[in-house]
């Protein structure tokens, strides 16, 4: 520390800023979180990412084709239309479909193991009318794979 410097002051040549003032300004200027009007809802895009579907437009094709439920709403902030999914919509998707990421969470198996078992068992991704909707599988088609993965878990 140089002679005449205070430990709680930071400065550049003629400019001196007290750290406590900067902290107070940041706290005052920070945007206040707005209460959500969509309790229990997420955007379809956020749900798709969490389920391991990252291809642009793949999950939206599943929704727009009527294969899984979602609600089209106007985003109050951006004023753009977006698909949102309620807990019931997500539960309906999970009852009918699954993804390798979801299977990994259910079984504890590694994604590469899941992909290899799906391929070796000949389980094909869900392709409604030939449309690529990402790594989405019919739940009833993967049940034997889930049983196989769970039986290998203890080995």
Q: Care to describe what's here?
A:
This protein has 155 residues and is an alpha+beta fold. The chain has 7 helices and 7 strands. It has helices at 19-29, 44-50, 58-64, 87-96, 100-107, 111-120, 139-153; strands at 9-12, 15-18, 42-43, 71-74, 81-85, 97-98, 137-138. The strands form 3 sheets. Strands 3-5-4 form a 3-stranded antiparallel β-sheet. Strands 1-2 form a two-stranded antiparallel ribbon. Strands 6-7 form a two-stranded antiparallel sheet.
Q: Helices and strands: which structural class?
A: alpha+beta
- Uncertain runs are none
Radius of gyration over C-alpha positions, nearest whole angstrom:
25 Å
Shape: elongated
Number of helices: 7
Largest sheet: 3 strands, antiparallel
Range of helix content:
40-55%
- For the termini, the CA-CA separation is 62 Å
β-strand number: 7
Order of helices and strands: EEHEHHEEHEHHEH
Strand order of the largest sheet: 3-5-4
Compute the average pLDDT: 83
Strand content: 5-15%
Helices and strands in order:
Blueprint: E1 9-12, E2 15-18, H1 19-29, E3 42-43, H2 44-50, H3 58-64, E4 71-74, E5 81-85, H4 87-96, E6 97-98, H5 100-107, H6 111-120, E7 137-138, H7 139-153
Record keyword descriptors for this entry.
single chain, 155 residues, alpha+beta, three-stranded antiparallel β-sheet, two-stranded antiparallel ribbon, 44% helix, 7 helices, elongated
Task: Give a quick summary of the entry.
The chain has 155 residues and is α+β, with helices and mostly antiparallel strands. Helix content is 44%, strand content 15%. 20% of the residues are buried.
